[in-house]
Amino acid sequence: MKNSNFSKLYLIFAGLICFCYACDFSNQKSKNANVPKYVFYFIGDGMGHQHVKLTEAYLHACNQDAFGFDKLAFDTLPVSGTSTTHAANRLITGSAAAGTALATGFKTNIDRLAMSPYGEESFQSIATVFKNKGKKVGIISSVSIDHATPAVFYAHCKDRDVYFTIGKQLAESDFDFFGGGGLLEPENDDVNLYDYLEENDYQVIREQNGINQTKPDEKTVLINPVLGDEAEMPYAIDRKYVGGYSLADFTRIAIENLYGDTGFFIMVEGGKIDWAAHANDAATIVREVIDFDKAVQEALKFYLQHPDETLVVVTSDHETGGLGLGNAEMKFQTNYALLEKQSMSVEYMAELLHSGYINASDLPEIFDLDDLSRTESEQVKEAAVFAGNEVSHIRYGGYSPLPVTYGQILNKRAGVGFTTWEHTAAPVPVYAIGPGAEIFSGQMDNTDIPKRIMQVTGYDFTEN
Predict the structure, then answer these.
(1) What distance in Å separates the CA atoms of residue 27 and residue 151, rounded to the nearest whole number?
(2) Is 50 left (phi over 0), alpha (psi -120 to 50) or beta?
(3) Are 32 and 438 in contact (CB under 8 A)?
(4) Top-tier CATH class for 5-324+429-457
(5) What are phi and psi of 320, to 5 degrees?
(6) Cβ contacts of residue 180 below 8 Å, gap of 6+?
(7) Distance from C-alpha of 168 to C-alpha of 327, rounded to nearest angstrom
(8) pLDDT of 293-316, one tens digit each?
(9) What is d(CA 432, CA 98) in angstroms, rounded to the nearest whole number?
C-alpha cells in the first residue's frame, strides 16, 4: 500500500503535541484550584464516536498497512466522557436544539435557537455570560456564521431559518470576533447586514488575503474568501481546488486577536463533518475530522503556553449518518486506506457534474474505481436514471445519484457502513484538558457541559 506523506507528517506533529500536553497534565493535577482565564469550546457537528475512530483507522491504514488506530490530538486529552443529545420534544435531535443545550444548559424543541420549547423565554448562552464578565468572545464555524450552532451563542429565535433576523442579532451582539462562513441572507429590502455590521463598529473582511488584515483592537467579522451556495466554507478535501482558509487558520487568528489580560471564550464549530455525514461521504468525513483536529491543535499549542489558565473542551452536538466501522457485504474485512483515493467531495463532484465541468465518465477516475463488478455496474446504471423523487431521497439521500453511488461503492470496499442520511440518537464523545477538566469525565447530558464550564470558571447563568 502506498503511504501518505501528508498523514505521516500530520501524525508526527499531532503526536508531539499530545506528548507535551500529556506530560504537562500530569504535573498540573495538583493545580486544579486554578480558575481558567481562557476557554475553548470545540463542537464537531455530527461527529460521533465512530467518526473519530474511522478517522483514526484511516490514518493508521494510510501509514501502517495494517489494522489499528492512530490517535487524533483531541482523542488523547487526559479526560473523556460521553454525552446524550436528545431534544425536549424528540429523541433524535437537530442542531438548533442540541446547540441550545450546549450553549445554555437547557433543553428545547427542534428548531428553537436559545429559547424555551414553546418560544416564550430566551436562554442566556455561556458566551454572553463571558462577555458580560469582561472577557472577549469569538465564534467560528466552517458553515455560515448564522447557522444553528454558532447562532445559539448570540441569537434568540423561535425558528432557526430566519437568517436575516439571526444575522441582525449577530451584528448587535457586541462579540469581538466572528470567523468562517458568511451570512445566508445578508440583506432584505432596506438593510444590508454587512453595512449594518460596520455601523455597529465591526471591521468586515472578505478579501482573499483578509486573514492578514485583522486588527486585534477592533471587533472583527472575518469571512472565508471562498464560499459555497449556502455561505459555507469549502470542504477540506476540496480546498486544493477552490482555495480558502482552514478552520485552524481561523482559530489561530482568533487567538491572536482575542488574547489579553481579560481572557477569552472561543467557540469553534466543525460544521461540515455533519454535512459530509448527511451525504454518507466517508472520505470527506475523515478529511473534515482531521481539519477539525488541526483547529483543536491550535488551542492545545496555546494551552501549552498557559496550562494553568486554559480550559479546552471538545464535544459534538449529535451523531449523523449512523456510521459504522464495518458493513454486511465486507463481513469482517476493512481497508480504510481506500478512502484516500477519493480526490474531492461527493457534493463538489455533483456541482461540477451539474455545471458541465466534468462528465459522468470522469467519476470512476475521481474515485479511482476502474474495476467495477457486475453488481456495482448495475448500481451505476440505476443511479443514472433516477430523478429527485421520494425513492431517490431514500436511496440517495436527496443528493446527486451518480456521485453518491460511486461513493457508496467506495464506502463498501473500504468497510464503512451507514444506516441513515440523517441524525441519530447515539451518544457523542466529550474530551477536556485544563483546570477543572476532571469534571467532564463519565456519563453526562449535553446540558451538563455548559453548566460544568460555568462551574469551573466560577460563573453562573443567572448572573448578568
Answers:
(1) 37
(2) alpha
(3) yes
(4) alpha beta
(5) -125, 135
(6) 140, 141, 142, 143, 145, 150, 222, 223, 224, 233, 247, 250, 269
(7) 46
(8) 999 999 999 999 999 999 999 999
(9) 19
Q: Within 10 A of 366 (CB to CB), how many other CB atoms are there?
A: 18
- pTM of the full predicted structure? 0.93
Residue 44 grid cell: 464537531
**DSSP state letters, 239-286:** HHHH----HHHHHHHHHHHH-STT-EEEEEEETHHHHHHHTT-HHHHH
Q: Which helix (H) or strand (E) holds 424?
A: strand 423-424
The residue extents of the domains of the chain are: 5-324+429-457, 343-416
Would you say 227 and 245 are in contact if contact means Cβ atoms under 8 Å apart?
Answer: no
205-228 b/e with 16+ CB inside 10 Å = b?
Answer: beeeebbeebeeeebbbbbbbebb
- Amino acid at site 291: D
Q: d(Cα 352, Cα 433) in Å, to the nearest integer?
A: 42
d(CA 192, CA 200): 12
Pairing of strands 177-180, 324-325: unpaired
Dist. CA 45–CA 43, nearest whole Å: 6
Q: How far apart are CA 199 and CA 291, in angstroms?
A: 34
Asked if 312 and 265 touch (Cβ cutoff 8 Å), the reply is no
pLDDT in tens, 226-277: 999 999 999 999 999 999 999 999 999 999 999 999 999 999 999 999 999 9
